[in-house]
Amino acid sequence: MDIPHIAFVGAGNMASSIIGGLIESGHPARRISAADPFPASLERLQEIAPVTVCSDNAQAVDSADVIILAVKPQVMAEATASIATAVQSNGAVVISIAAGVTITSMLARLGPRAAVVRCMPNTPALLGCGASGLFANGNCSQQQREYAQSILGAVGITCWVDTEQALDAITALSGSGPAYFFLFMESMIDAGCELGLDRDTATTLAMQTSLGASRMAIESDVDLAELRRRVTSPAGTTERAIQTFEADGLREVVTNAMRAAAERAAEMAREMG
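^ thats the sequence. predicted structure below, dont judge the formating
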């Protein structure tokens, strides 16, 4: 694959993490540019790598093969309008990581022939262990899909979906998912303190338990239900806790929460037009 020129519109945390992943994977800094209105953001970015930076979006995306829109949904209309000329002249693929901004709304400013990939990443991408859902419109070539795969793959795993609507479910699962686990860990820590542990000890044990369980789930050759059964001795402490979770409707609580998140993602798309 040719080495593409990748331009970022927005140089915040997610853009910085993707650029860091690209550099670590061997992408040359000279083939990366970024624009942001805040000098401090550009300065932090150049601490990661000597990429080309500026405050003008159109300048940053000039001659780009890939343009990554790493801006808040509220400024997406302005951002897409600022790069439309370059997209139409260069045929660059546009990758959006903004929640709730549909491809249809982007095409209204980029032009109907623009190649667009919507991506829903999550915050663990900041540590190189993210999970991203991707959807490409019909204007994308196979090479442009491979560009998107390679770029987001530099900060974690990627999963392609067949419909744009499926990104709402991705948002509910992995996009918002880290917060669910943080809440569960908070709850475990608080319960540990109520049972007599000091907060530092409860925090250390809860976090390490979360890490260990995740690694077992990822690295094991058996499914989650079997892993759970192996930990759950008959008439033991774990069984009593699991029975309590089930009796209190934990599965239904999780399903309702994720349904609410997916519905909110769809609402945001309608609100953004």
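Residues 177-269 form a domain with the ProC C-terminal domain-like fold fold (CATH 1.10.3730.10).
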